[in-house]
Design goal:
436 residues, 15% strand, alpha+beta, seven-stranded mixed beta sheet, three-stranded antiparallel beta sheet
Length: 436
């Protein structure tokens, strides 16, 4: 019955198959490999083109399944005993839990070199009897630069920002606000303090000054971000257009490099540190500490074909095919550099220059947190934006986050085994990204 269900699932997925072919009773080495990922609504098209190119070289068939409910979909498939061969997720916190549970498999030595930090740090998993093992379990296939502020070229550099803010993102609403808090901690305190806070070594209470600074930025000139910021999408406007800067009622947007796909060459990126008052950083780095995010591939159904696919997805030829299939303003960034036949857009080139100038890159803190703590962070941001001038509210929110951190620590100590995920920052020379 299990084989029958899998065969039927293969038939249903055939409409998305990368390579042509009917639903047959293929042998184990000939079956279609399923890749589960986050890209939908056309964003997946260049990736599917790269899969097609790999398929022509290997003779294997690949199916890409994209969903905005990635965590829920993967959990359901794992519970049904029918996981994808590969899953591409943007949360090391979730991936580390899958590593601990044994659902994600450690990378074999021949592909472990693709696990470039800080996107893929080693994970220490403690088992029964206190025995521990350290492996890398995933590899980045695409990355993005954060710690960016976008504005139009006709906006003066010294103009007082009117900040865009949209926090609505379905089940993950609030993350654009957590990006703000994380970035302020990184810019004001430096990468070492950022890493200590993100991994639970320092308290949430200690972050109070950056929450208060963000409140002053959002409420400048008597403005209030609520209630619109709580219901506005982070990218989709009410009239069906994309990009908050296209509304016309704000001048600066704090957002990652992916947002450039919604704009033309009249919108430019600059480092967050340049827009803080006073313009200063915690370290003598000229404001060149950057947050990064990424989409990481892990193998959930190991086979020679699955490991081969992960190896190829992180190779220069696949990255070139992916980059060439993308529009100039949607050119993906990759760790370690890549090649492309077509010139990038001005926005893509500007982001690349900032990537190249980074002193330290640190992985998105909330993405690296255990899912329960990350979700509590999202909720805290939403409540805070509802009334950012209420000091008692902020006190309660930070106490709640400290309590959730302590609860998470107790849970890890009580259960058999725990994971350690500490290395969130790295020298960009070893983890350089490229889109040229």
């Amino acid at each position: 019955m299990k084989r029958l269900r899998l065969a039927l699932a293969g038939c249903l997925l055939a409409v998305s198959a990368v390579s042509a072919g009917g639903c047959t009773s293929a042998g184990p080495d000939e079956r279609t490999l399923v890749v589960l990922g986050p890209w939908t609504d056309g964003e997946e098209t260049p990736f599917v083109q790269a899969l097609r190119s790999i398929s022509r070289k290997t003779g294997h068939r690949y199916v890409y399944k994209g969903t905005r409910s990635l965590r829920e979909t993967l959990v359901a498939q794992l519970q049904a005993g029918a996981p994808p061969d590969l899953a591409i997720l943007n949360s090391p916190g979730e991936l580390a839990q899958y590593a601990r549970s044994g659902d994600a498999h450690p990378l074999p030595e021949r592909v472990a070199g693709a696990a470039i930090p800080p996107w893929a740090p080693p994970v220490t998993v403690a088992g029964k009897g206190g025995a521990a093992r350290t492996h890398v379990f995933w590899a980045p296939v695409r990355v993005d630069l954060k710690s960016l502020v976008w504005s139009r070229t006709d906006v003066q550099d010294d103009a007082a920002p009117q900040w865009c803010l949209g926090l609505n993102s379905g089940a993950t609403s609030g993350w654009p606000g957590t990006d703000w808090i994380e970035d302020l901690i990184l810019q004001r305190r430096g990468h070492a303090a950022y890493e200590n806070w993100a991994t639970g070594k320092t308290s949430w209470k200690s972050t109070r000054p950056v929450w208060e600074e963000w409140a002053r930025m959002l409420t400048g000139n008597g403005r209030s971000p609520a209630p619109d910021a709580l219901t506005d999408s982070f990218e989709l406007l009410d009239d069906g257009r994309y990009g908050l800067l296209n509304r016309g009622d704000c001048t600066h947007e704090h957002q990652g490099s992916f947002i450039r796909r919604h704009y033309g060459d009249d919108v430019r990126p600059s480092p967050t540190a340049r827009h803080l008052d006073p313009v200063a950083s915690a370290e003598e780095d000229g404001g060149r500490n950057f947050e990064v995010s990424g989409d990481m591939a892990a193998v959930f159904r190991p086979s020679a074909a699955a490991w081969d696919l992960l190896d190829r997805l992180t190779s220069a030829p696949a990255r070139k095919d992916w980059a060439d299939a993308a529009k100039p303003g949607e050119r993906p960034f990759f760790p370690g550099g890549t090649f492309a036949s077509k010139p990038p857009s001005q926005g893509t080139r500007a982001v690349q220059e900032l990537f190249d100038s980074a002193h330290q890159i640190c992985f998105d803190a909330s993405d690296a947190m255990p899912p329960t703590l990350r979700d509590a962070f999202y909720r805290a941001v939403l409540e805070f934006v509802g009334d950012p001038k209420d000091p008692d509210l902020l006190t309660r929110l930070l106490e709640r986050l400290d309590a959730e951190t302590a609860l998470q620590r107790e849970k890890e100590e009580e259960e058999e085994g725990a994971f350690v995920l500490d290395d969130l920052c790295d020298d960009p020379v070893s983890g350089a990204a490229g889109a040229s």
